[in-house]
Design goal:
Strand content: 35-45%
Helix content: under 10%
Radius of gyration: 35 Å
Structural class: mainly beta
Number of strands: 23
Order of helices and strands: HEEEEEEEEEEEEEEEEEEEEEEE
Length: 292
């Protein structure tokens, strides 16, 4: 019994097994002559088996115990997590994902005319950037104008000439807006979209006779002064119930991306307005169309 008590009173000795320095690849702190020592490539600090890299360096994706320099992206972009984010006018080099290179003029598929592109066959001007050419995904058909139907009382009032779609008044990206707010008679009134300019082609009253957009003479709206380029000049007399009388005026329109279009309001009655539209998306001034 006394022997048992003595055994129980013997202090417990805890033996901690210490891993040999070389047993864990990359372990530091065991001396400079340790073949397994590492300093994160000389550009960081190793702590608890993890590299904390110096400014301008990141952990090598192929070696977690090494710090490598963050790519400069060719000095025309910045590194974000795992890829180059290039500055405006630059794109990632297809042959080197760590470098940003200048985007060729008109993406290499056209020529710059002033500040906007004229694109080669099968390419159109980027709807968001007139200095780029992109593969043609538009609804455009050469020489074919589209009759778009606007419904003033159903909030189908804004036109996107690139897609030839009609949207509601809440849409912020549009080319043509037919409002019901003419400053003279509160009737239908055409507004131009952001960056859109236009002019009346008074000397050419026939729509299909207009084959080329003018080079200059385009004007923008000034809503603050109730001054609209197209406004209500497309109608002359009549009313919304029996129908407005059309002037048959044709308008040249230049979109914010530099492409050209032509429109004519064909009819307006009972809140329904028909607008004949043609857009040339390749950046040229060719507006040739054929009568149906």
């Amino acid at each position: 019994m006394n022997r048992l008590k003595m055994a129980l009173n013997v202090p417990m000795v805890v033996v901690v097994s210490v891993m040999a320095c070389g047993a864990l690849s990359g372990w530091v702190g065991c001396g400079d002559d340790d073949p397994g020592a590492t300093d994160c490539g000389g550009h960081g600090v190793l702590s608890m088996g993890e590299c904390f890299c110096d400014e301008g360096y990141r952990v090598d994706t192929d070696d977690a115990l090494n710090c490598v320099q963050i790519p400069s992206c060719g000095d025309n972009g910045h590194w974000d997590t795992d890829q180059c984010i290039c500055d405006t006018g630059y794109t990632v080099d297809p042959s080197d994902a760590l470098t940003c290179v200048e985007i060729p003029e008109c993406s290499g598929h056209g020529e710059l005319d002033s500040e906007f592109c004229v694109c080669e066959a099968d390419y159109v001007v980027d709807p968001q950037d007139g200095a780029l050419c992109v593969e043609d995904d538009s609804v455009h058909q050469d020489g074919v104008a589209v009759d778009l139907e606007i419904h003033l009382h159903a909030n189908d009032v804004k036109i996107d000439l690139y897609t030839m779609e009609v949207f509601g008044e809440e849409e912020t990206a549009f080319d043509i807006f037919i409002g019901h707010d003419d400053p003279v008679d509160s009737g239908p009134n055409i507004h131009l979209g952001p960056g859109v300019t236009a002019q009346s082609l008074d000397g050419t009253p026939l729509y299909h006779a207009v084959t080329e957009a003018p080079t200059d003479g385009y004007l923008s709206d000034d809503p603050g002064a109730n001054d609209y380029v197209i406004g209500s000049t497309w109608r002359d007399g009549g009313d919304g119930t029996l129908g407005f009388h059309m002037t048959e005026a044709v308008y040249a329109v230049r979109l914010a991306n530099g492409t050209h279009a032509k429109i004519e309001i064909l009819s307006a009655q009972g809140g329904t307005v028909h607008v004949l539209c043609y857009l040339q998306p390749d950046g040229s001034r060719d507006l040739t169309t054929a009568a149906p």
